[in-house]
Design a protein that fits this description.
By secondary structure, this protein is mostly helical. The protein has one domain: Farnesyl Diphosphate Synthase, CATH 1.10.600. Helix 2 runs antiparallel to helix 3 and helix 7 runs antiparallel to helix 9. It is globular.
């Protein structure tokens, strides 16, 4: 049971399932995809690409994780580096195989995601904001992949998959900055140059706050344009923006790692009602 739980956490199955769900939602929200069956190959590819990135992330970060997350599978020794590398290779192969059943536009997105994940983990993860931007872009690309499964025409019709991709980008970006604050001490010990290490915690925290304010303004704009109905507004306000406001009041301007970890986890949970708001509130 312990080893099973370790593999579950190193893959981050819940994140992979959210990525698959985002692909399905991106397809559903594309205007031309009405009455089309969900593309399970694209959903599967997103799952395995996400899993590949998560495993490689833990392999690369084993040293700072000895401080930041000592109970994770690799620092604790439950899973060996060799086993993790083999699992990452398996996920990479499966994602490539699944992408072969997609159209050429979708294949480009899958390949782009794999390239970005590799560059992120090997080069840009510990640079100020660049790593955060790549993770946020990958979060948005899941919706884009869903829209492209029915061709570029459906993708380009607003709001389609593009507007949800923008929301996903902003939500992931704000969360990733908080996670960097959470991991500041361990990152500093290995010479990382993330924003909290270089400039302190307050400036990144304020940037994260500003990102979520921008997201709230864009949500109102999407509603006022008639892209989404009142249910979108009610769900977003009740399950995302009001909880976020309370979380940020609690966090204040003293971003302790423990508090940042809790808020980052809550934001991940709030992504699910965000997806529900997009689906239920669709009015086009």
């Amino acid at each position: 049971m312990r080893i099973f739980r370790a593999y579950f956490t190193i893959i981050r199955v819940q994140n992979c399932l959210i990525a698959s769900l985002a692909v399905a939602v991106g397809q559903y929200l594309s205007a031309s995809s009405i009455a089309m069956p969900l593309n399970h190959f694209a959903m599967g590819a997103a799952f395995f690409v996400c899993g590949f990135g998560n495993i490689v992330n833990d392999i690369v970060d084993i040293k700072p994780d000895n401080i930041n997350h000592p109970t994770r599978a690799l620092p604790s020794g439950i899973i060996t580096i060799g086993a993790a590398k083999a699992l990452a290779g398996l996920f990479l192969i499966v994602s490539c195989i699944l992408s072969m059943f997609l159209n050429w536009q979708s294949i480009i997105i899958v390949d782009l995601a794999l390239i970005l994940l590799t560059v992120y983990n090997l080069k840009l993860k510990h640079t100020p904001y660049c790593g955060n931007l790549i993770v946020a872009l990958l979060g948005g690309l899941t919706f884009i992949l869903g829209g492209l499964t029915i061709g570029s025409k459906g993708l380009l019709e607003l709001p389609g998959a593009i507007i949800p991709a923008v929301f996903a980008f902003l939500m992931h970006l704000g969360r990733e900055i908080l996670k960097d604050i959470q991991d500041c001490e361990g990152d500093k010990s290995v010479g990382s140059k993330t924003a909290p290490v270089r400039s302190g915690r307050i400036t990144p925290l304020l940037i994260s706050y500003a990102i979520f304010v921008i997201m709230a303004i864009l949500s109102w704009s999407a509603y006022s344009r008639g892209w989404y109905g009142t249910s979108f507004l009610y769900i977003s306000a009740s399950f995302i923006y009001v909880p976020l406001a309370l979380q940020f009041i609690w966090l204040g301007l003293r971003p302790e790692p423990r508090k940042c970890a809790i808020v980052a986890t809550l934001i991940k949970i709030e992504m699910l009602p965000g997806i529900a708001a997009l689906v239920i509130g669709k009015s086009y």
